Amino acid sequence: MLTISRLAAYAGVTVPAIRHYHRIGLLPEPARDHSGYRTYDAAAVVRLIRIRTLADAGVPLARVQELLDAGAEEFAEGVQEIDKKLRAEVRRLQETRKRLARLAAGEHLALPASVVSYLDKLRELGAGDQYVELERDAWIMVAAQVPQHIEAVIATKHAELDDPDMVRFYQLVGGALDWDLDDPRIIEVADIVERRLILAVEAGALQVDGFDDTFVDLLDTTMLESSPLAARLLEILAERGWKGWTRVERVPDRAPRV
Q1: Thinking of the domain 4-103, which architecture would CATH place it in?
Q2: Could you tell me the sign of the dihedral formed by the alpha carbons of 45, 48, 50, 56, in that order?
Q3: Backbone angles phi, psi at 242, to 5 degrees
């Protein structure tokens, strides 16, 4: 005859678990010896192992009782049903793992492959992680706002990376978040941006964005809050006749430099 601690050791469960099974009627109370201690036999070991096996497989304790008391055919059907649910849960968990993997990858979670490829190119050009994260977050919002246009927009951005001006731009802004406000390189960044704006005007593409005003304000605010240098860059551009960042406009009565 076995004590409760010995039964727990043989069945691979804890003593509190056995007591819980007693309380809910899953494991019958055994006889007690002359000292009042519970004593268990081999049948209790076998039943407890079956309880543990079913519980470890994710079977609710209420179903465990049902299966243990079932006949052979009913037990087999019950196990098949549980197996079906477990396979569905495995598929769900595998999909969850895939989503977590995309989450760990950052931009892969909410961006199409074309945008992820673009961000990878920015890294290759020398744009720092901080700047790439700012671009990534902006692209996540853009992709959610205008999903039907994202591929066309990002194709244009990919093409821009063949321009030496843009290569230089990303090389500069990669470390710009650490610059002082009077760093002369901010002027070089402004020069590049202005040249791109002039090209956009000539192509008639300056106002093509498809965003509502609230969303434009959100993107601009995100950019301005990224660094004091962002506000300084916009000040320089405003002095040259430009206003805005996401949706750039000419400042009235101000002519941009050429």
Answers
A1: Orthogonal Bundle (1.10)
A2: negative
A3: -125, 145
Domain boundaries, the chain: 4-103, 107-250
For the segment 86-137, what is each residue's pLDDT rounded down to a tens digit?
888 888 888 877 666 655 555 556 788 898 899 989 988 888 788 888 888 8
Q: What is the pLDDT of residues 200-243, one digit of tens each?
A: 888 776 655 667 788 888 888 888 888 888 889 999 999 999 98
Would you state the structure tokens that stand for residue 109, as one six-digit string?
């979670």
Q: What is the pLDDT of residues 230-239, one digit of tens each?
A: 889 999 999 9
Strands 242-243 and 249-250: antiparallel
Structure tokens at 16: 């509190």
* Whole-angstrom distance, CA of residue 196 vs CA of residue 202: 10
Structure tokens at 126: 């020398």
- What letter does residue 176 receive in the DSSP assignment? G
Task: Convert 202-212 to b/e letters by CB count within 10 Å (16 or more is b).
Answer: eeeebeebebe
Put residue 25 in one of left, alpha, beta given phi > 0 → left and psi -120 to 50 → alpha.
left
Spatial CA neighbour of 249 closest among 211, 200, 203: 200
Which pLDDT does position 205 carry in this prediction? 65
Q: With cut-offs at 50, 70 and 90, classify the pLDDT of residue 189.
A: very high
Q: What are phi and psi of 163, to 5 degrees?
A: -85, 125
The neighbour count for residue 11, using CB atoms within 10 Å, is 23
